[in-house]
Amino acid sequence: MSGIAFLRATTLTLPTAQMFRKPTGAILCPRCGRLTHPEAAECLVCGLPRPGRWLWAAGIGRLLRTGNFTGMVTVACIGLYVLSLILDPLASLRPSGPFELFSPSQRALIDLGMSGAIPWRHGRWWTIFTAIYLHGSLLHILFNVLWIRQLGPAVENLYGPARLVIVFTVAGTLGFLLSSMAGVPFTVGASGSIFGLLGAMVAFGRRRGGVFGTMVLRQYGQWALVLFVLGFVMSGVDNFAHAGGFAGGFGAGLVLSFSDRRNETLLERVVAGGLIAMTALAFALALWTAFVS
């Protein structure tokens, strides 16, 4: 996952440590980006009360700007896929078909936070976050990671890194929420978030208009349509998660502004950081429920 700098050993890297160190000179206001003093009662430009008190949020914003959310989502998906194989290695070596090679067992996926109607009925609400990063086979994760790496940078370039986090997470959680309500017993995968990224690009095309907007709308709309059709042709595909993810991404794209119109706000960066923290908490709850409680 992105927006967070990597930890090396048990200490923060130097740039990250400097990012959150209390400043002694002039600072940039976290809201308007103008020079001010860390001890000022308010920013003289935008009126933000005690701008030095909000530097932690500015630090999160810088991490989101310099980090690589797409890369860290890739690392998280691959790492959790390997972990799911390690938890039950024999199951992955007994495929029921050629497309099931190196498939984690259902037990391992449940322990790590598989979503669906059954976990939802047992009160495992956190699975709508954790299931985004879990995958059911080698082909499943390969397909999804390739799409994430294709669409993530495109959304980040048009919307911004914090808004990418919001679109990706909101779309994935809404997709699994709809899937659970529709009665799909168990489900995993980042495809709901992928459809959310497509939805955000379609929303951008509609709002942007003009030649460029029309090109974006046509290209990503066609991709979404093709993937929707493939989902109904292939077996075992959670089309409810796809539909919910697309709706979530499209709605988020309509609500959030894009970079050409407005820079990311402090609130958007805080929301993105909160969603990252919520995802980390969700995995902590999944592991606690599976191995401690």
Question: Topology, please?
Answer:
Elements: H1 14-20, E1 27-28, E2 35-36, H2 55-66, H3 69-87, H4 89-92, H5 106-112, H6 117-121, H7 127-130, H8 138-159, H9 161-181, H10 191-208, H11 210-233, H12 239-255, H13 266-291
Antiparallel strand pairs: 1-2
State the secondary-structure class: mainly alpha
Number of domains: 2
If classified by CATH, what would the architecture of the largest domain be?
Answer: Up-down Bundle
Instruction: Give Rg in angstroms.
Output: 20 Å
Strands ordered across the widest β-sheet: 1-2
- Into which percentage range does the β-strand content fall? under 5%
Poorly predicted regions: 1-23
Class of the largest domain, according to the CATH hierarchy?
Mainly Alpha
Number of strands: 2
Q: Could you give the order of the helices and strands? A: HEEHHHHHHHHHHHH
Mean pLDDT: 85
What descriptive keywords fit this protein?
293 residues, mainly alpha, Rhomboid-like fold, 2 domains, two-stranded antiparallel ribbon, 13 helices, 63% helix
How does this structure look, described?
This protein has 293 residues and is mostly helical. It has two domains: 14-65, no CATH class; 104-291, Up-down Bundle (Rhomboid-like fold). The chain is built from 13 helices and two strands, in the order αββαααααααααααα. The protein has a two-stranded antiparallel sheet. β1 and β2 (35-36) form a beta hairpin. The longest helix is centred in the C-terminal third of the chain and has 26 residues, at 266-291. The radius of gyration is 20 Å and the shape is globular.
